[in-house]
Automatic annotation (TrEMBL):
The lineage of its organism: Bacteria, Bacillati, Actinomycetota, Actinomycetes, Micromonosporales. Keywords: Cell inner membrane, Cell membrane, Membrane, Sugar transport, Transmembrane, Transmembrane helix, Transport. It comes from Asanoa iriomotensis. It is found in: Cell membrane. This is Xylose transport system permease protein XylH. It is a multi-pass membrane protein.
């Protein structure tokens, strides 16, 4: 039986189960339980966490992770990794800023240039992966080091510093800031525009993954690329498209970074790729591909947002946050395997 046929058969089995069994077989169920537990924990031990005004701060931290965790989750479901995702965000912000500042252009020219570059980097990763047959871990690790060096080297040449110059006095900055760095106040809650982008990306990705043919292709190439190719799934286009989606979201995140803070540090983003991957794994994605949830990845990002600020609000030592990341990764991997095996048996 081909991978596509296996997916169809699995869907038929799931549809015939009782509601409780269907809910418990969802990839994101573990992350949802964890989010509730962490929420209740910090509600109990951290008084500032109970302040409604801090909801916007928590959601902002979650959104900056979630905007990248969603496409990274799609890519992992498709059976691949992108270790350059963190520095690609920085590359997007730097490229747009440096181009506009160096040549005195309207900042929207830099924004469009950055979009083309970010998507091209994603396409290159996908092309090189398919061309060489190397694991995506190695391909994108190479891209990671290349971009990290280029970010620092080009920024030093252009500005004589390790950060881009401020562009808030340049043409087009005000309108670009409204698109990428604005915020809205609802009662005591101050919401950044990234929260809106995060929710939209999650809804669109979830719809594509669960309700379209492309979603079936993503699951199929992640489960068994050879079998998927044999039944007509466009494996190459699907994988390249997933890498390009990561590039697009890196551009969107990079534009927020630029227009929110007016400058970009060339060393920013290193290590963020692991946070994106861990959020996806917490959300139900398997490292082997073919299984996962973008909604779960967003819940994983929310867990990070709550934990980062909850530790500070509780007055705990923030050095323990990295320990939390490792523990959550191990627990999520075990839970994901258990849920998948239970789902396959029913």
């Amino acid at each position: 039986m081909s991978t596509v046929e296996e997916l169809a058969a699995r869907d038929d089995r799931v549809a015939g189960r009782p509601l409780a069994a269907r809910v418990l077989s969802r990839p994101e169920v573990g992350s949802l339980v964890a989010a509730v537990v962490i929420f209740l924990l910090f509600m109990a031990v951290a008084e500032p966490f109970r302040n409604v005004a801090n909801v916007g701060t928590i959601l902002y931290g979650a959104s900056t992770i979630g905007m990248m965790a969603v496409p990274v989750a799609l890519l992992m479901i498709g059976g691949e990794f992108d270790l350059s995702a963190g520095v690609a965000v920085t590359t997007a912000g730097l490229s747009g800023s440096l181009l506009a500042w160096n040549f005195g252009l309207n900042v929207w020219v830099g924004v469009l240039f950055s979009l083309v570059l970010a998507v091209a980097i994603g396409a290159f990763n996908g092309w090189l992966l398919l061309r060489t047959g190397l694991p995506s871990f190695l391909v994108t690790l190479g891209t990671f080091f290349v971009l990290q060096g280029v970010n620092l080297g080009v920024t030093r040449i252009a500005t004589g510093n390790v950060a881009s110059a401020g562009i808030n006095d340049m043409d087009g900055f005000a309108s670009a800031h409204a698109v990428f760095g604005s915020e809205v106040t609802i009662g005591p809650i101050n919401l950044k525009i990234t929260v809106l982008y995060w929710v939209l990306l999650t809804l669109i990705a979830a719809y594509v993954l669960l309700r379209t043919r492309i979603g079936n292709w993503i699951f199929a190439v992640g489960g068994d690329a050879g079998a998927a190719r044999a039944v007509g799934v466009p494996v190459r286009a699907t994988k390249v498209g997933l890498f390009m989606a990561v590039g697009f979201c890196a551009w969107l995140s990079g534009m927020h970074l630029l227009f929110q803070f007016n400058t970009v540090q060339s060393g920013e983003g290193v290590g963020k790729e692991f946070i994106f991957i861990i959020a996806a794994v917490i959300g139900g994605c398997l490292l082997t591909g073919g299984y996962g949830s973008v909604v779960g990845a967003s819940i994983g990002a929310l867990i990070f947002g709550m934990t980062q600020l909850g530790i500070n609000y509780a007055g705990w030592n923030p050095d323990w946050f990295r320990t939390f990341l490792g523990v959550m990764l191990l627990l999520a991997t075990i839970v994901n395997l258990y849920v998948k095996r239970r789902a396959d048996l029913r």
